[in-house]
Amino acid sequence: MNPNGTFLVNEIEDIILNDHQNGMDGSLISILEDIQDRYHFLPKDALILVSERLGIPLSQTYSIATFYNAFSLVPKGKHLVSVCLGTACHVKGGGDILDKIRRELDLDSRETTEDFEFTVEEVRCLGCCSLSPVVRVDNDTYAHLKQEQVPKILKKYQREKEALEA
Amino acid sequence: MRITALEDLEKARERGTRSLYPSKTKIMVGMATCGLAAGAQEVYDALLDEINKRGLDVSLSQVGCIGWCCREPLVDVLIPGRPRITYGEMSPQKVPEILGALTRGEVAKKLAIGRLDEDENLVEGTKRSYLASGIAAANTVPSYKELGLFKNQLRIVLRNCGFIDPRNIDEHIARGGYLALHKVLNSLSPEEVIEEVTQSGLRGRGGAGFPTGLKWKLTRQAKGDVKYVICNADEGDPGAYMDRSVLEGDPHSVIEGMIIGAYAIGAAEGYIYVRAEYPLAVEMLTTAIQQAEEYGFLGENIFGSGMDFRIHISKGAGAFVCGEETALMASIEGRPGEPRLRPPFPSESGLWGKPTNINNVETWANVPVVIARGGDWYSRIGTETSKGTKVFSLVGKVENNSLIEVPMGISLREIIYEAGGGILAGRDFKAIQTGGPSGGCIPKELIDLPVDYEQLTQAGAIMGSGGMIVMDDRTCMVDIAKYFLTFLKAESCGKCIPCRSGIKRMHKILCDITEGKGREGDVELLEELAVVVKGGSLCGLGQTAPNPVLTALRYFRDEFDAHIRDRRCPAGVCKELIVYSIDSEQCTGCGRCVKVCPREAITGEKKEPHCLDPERCIKCGACYEVCKFDAIVRR
Question: Is A73 on the interface with B (CB under 8 A)?
């Protein structure tokens, strides 16, 4: 996506083409998944373009985009913080970890920080129950978390931004 | 390199055997998702680095998960002629110690947690001793056979997990892989395959326990030229990860099962619907399917038999309801995953309206063994009505958080106290939750209950996919009931009003109860709503949604009463009903709680008992978490 928040038509076209070639079934869902991966949300214009290319009514594309949890219609932060609230994590204090992260990032009722650095979301089971409570930040998984470790972990990603700016 | 005859399979087997048991020392790192999360990649990198630095002639390999989750990351060392040694809680810092011992031909005793003297090939029923003649087992390290976690296990589904590199099809073949397929295509008719599966007594491992042989038969008999088989890998129950472990550790077992099923049913195409939260499983499956195609196990003219079969992967997009078979098929078809009325059942009209057979990962992985060893052999394992084994993820407040596979009929006590090693931190056992959001909590009074489909259902829970979450006296059962309804409220697809609105109302009542706003009559109202939700919903999600609440009411009614009448949470969990304080007898004044308190609610002199100001306290529990002296009290 370019800095103005618009996406490149070519990129979406590539995603649609790629999906067919990779032997994934080329269905709407897997195309939307790839767009979600690429932009961290589904831009409205991208949905329109996909509908046109696949010859599917926009209403149908929209219904898929809103049915599945993997999709978001609003932009997400650069780092995705997934707090596991599976049963094992729940009984071991995952909810307290979530509250702590939200306090640290000053989120109140929002999901995404104002600087679009972090989006915090609850997930119901990452399937690493033996490591509970678990939090995943992007592709890094943190196991047996305690509240006191939270600030240090978030700092690590905040520092990345500071380093870039410097 | 296509395999068309038994001789080709033998050649692949020889290659696999050489890489499984090389003539030089072999080091294996458990690198499934949980191992990686615990730091297995760093350990692997450190091993590689150090091996190169020291110029050691050692083979380094990655394997799936052996299920000893609480001791991850795990590293196994196999020196030819000696027992296989497992090292636990590995870190890059411990690598030199292991390699040092290994070069001296010794065991790093302090880090070793288990020893295997032989390797069992479940498919063929053979054993291979690791010990060269004249070499005694390393007695200082406990044998897997003596360890509580492993001694009751019978690993049929998990036969290769933790032993083979999941990306190496030859290693899978070396442990009997694709032998059953060869047998099926060369000597059994589809009807005979179905007969074998029926005789085994295998029932669906996704939770409901429908007889697999019967399901296959119905799909075979259904009219139509085009038929499908589907593997349900949308493992959505929170607290369950057995399917992930199989897909990440031994994907070919599922693929082989599906090919056999496709032959029996008469399908030329199959789908694996796998949840998007499992990227590594998707990666392993993709690699495995490619390899199976190269070897000619998938594609046209399989094993030269004239059978054609292909498998496609379909990724889920995060909707729990898609674990329900009709919703799953709608999702593969590219539509929102809303369940539909049955009948017609998928065996008659499934994917794109064609006869379809859906089984879950664990069921498929059982199939090659059922065929190779025979239905009769399989049916001798388990209980009267529940045959074979079941994989359970044993998690929560239990010492050995682990993935175990045990024969049906084993008691909960054996699972919790032998395999699980008892309750975490020596607390009291309160209940065990099985069956995820469709199941329930079984109380300690029923700890001797034998685990099979019927017994669990009678107790008000269900077998489900196999998540077992252990709860201690600090778990609030009202909170757990609320937890599951929070989950189901979010995951109800919204098609049936009793499910959509009924769960919401039940959830609201439970929220009130946990917030100290419960009223007399709430329990009765919950029971009444439960009947409506169960009776008025189309699919399993709604029909079973009230189960967690109903079992909580059945076994823990007194906790509901304490919340409603006394405005008290006996387990000390529900925030609105508890107050934090400091026990001055226990407090040593170490000051750890002061550091973590976000509201400066705790004060006191160093080495003197501290005080907690309940006015400032937000009940975040940070102090409780760090106190080493049990001085923080929640009441």
Answer: no
- pLDDT single digits (tens) B123-161: 999 999 999 877 776 678 999 999 999 999 999 999 999
Give span(s): CATH 3.10.20.600, chain B. 389-472
Dihedral of CA B407/B408/B411/B416: which sign?
Answer: positive
Residue pointed to by tokens 């943190």: A142
- Residue B386 burial (C-beta neighbours within 10 Å; 0-12, 13-18, 19+): buried
Compute, in degrees rounded to 10, the torsion defined by CA atoms B296, B299, B305, B307: 160
Asked if residue B438 has pLDDT above 60, the reply is: yes
* A contact residues 28-47, partner B, Cβ 8 Å cutoff: 28-30, 32-33
- Of all residues in chain A, the one with the smallest CA distance to B40 is A141
CB contact under 8 A, A63 and B332: no
Contacts of B511 in chain A (CB under 8 A): none
Residue of A69, A88, A124 lying closest to B396 (CB–CB): A88
Interchain CB contact of B575 with A (< 8 Å): no
Least confident span in A125-129, B90-94, B279-283, B511-515: A125-129
> Least CA distance to B490: which residue of chain A?
A69
Bond prior to B437 in cis (omega within 30° of 0): no
For chain A, say whether B397 makes contact (Cβ under 8 Å). Answer: yes
Give the contacts of A161 (CB within 8 A, at least 6 positions apart). A78, A117
CATH of domain A79-165: 3.40.30.10
pLDDT digits (tens, 9 = 90+) for B534-557: 999 999 999 999 999 999 999 999
Chain B partners within 8 Å of A92 (Cβ) = 396-397
Where along chain B do the CATH 3.40.50.11540 domains lie?
178-378
ipTM of the complex: 0.91
Query: With 60 as the cut, is the pLDDT of residue B454 above it?
Result: yes
The pTM of the full predicted model, rounded to 2 decimals, is: 0.95
Q: Which residues does residue B434 pair with via DSSP β-bridges, in sequence order?
A: B440, B468
What are the b/e assignments for B354-380, b being 16+ CB within 10 Å?
bbbbbbbbbbbbbbbbbbbbebeebbe
Cβ–Cβ < 8 Å for B312, A25: yes
Topology annotation, domain B178-378: Rossmann fold (3.40.50)
Q: Which fold has domain B16-151?
A: Glutaredoxin (3.40.30)
pLDDT digits (tens, 9 = 90+) for A3-52: 445 567 888 888 888 776 554 445 788 889 889 988 889 999 999 999 99
Determine, for residues B620 and A70 on separate chains, whether the beta-carbon distance falls below 8 Å: no
Residue A6: the pLDDT is 57
Task: Please count the other Cβ atoms lying within 10 Å of the Cβ belonging to residue B103.
Answer: 12
CATH architecture assignment, domain B477-565: Up-down Bundle (1.20)
pLDDT above 80 (res B219) = yes
Domain ranges of chain A: 9-67, 79-165
Instruction: Could you please state the CATH topology (level 3) that the domain comprising B389-472 is classified under.
Output: Ubiquitin-like (UB roll) (3.10.20)
Query: pLDDT digits over B22-31, tens only?
Result: 999 999 999 9
Nearest by Cα to A134 from B216, B583, B36, B601: B36
Q: Are the C-beta atoms of residues B102 and B58 closer than 8 Å to each other?
A: yes
Say yes or no: domain B579-634 is CATH 3.30.70.20. Answer: yes
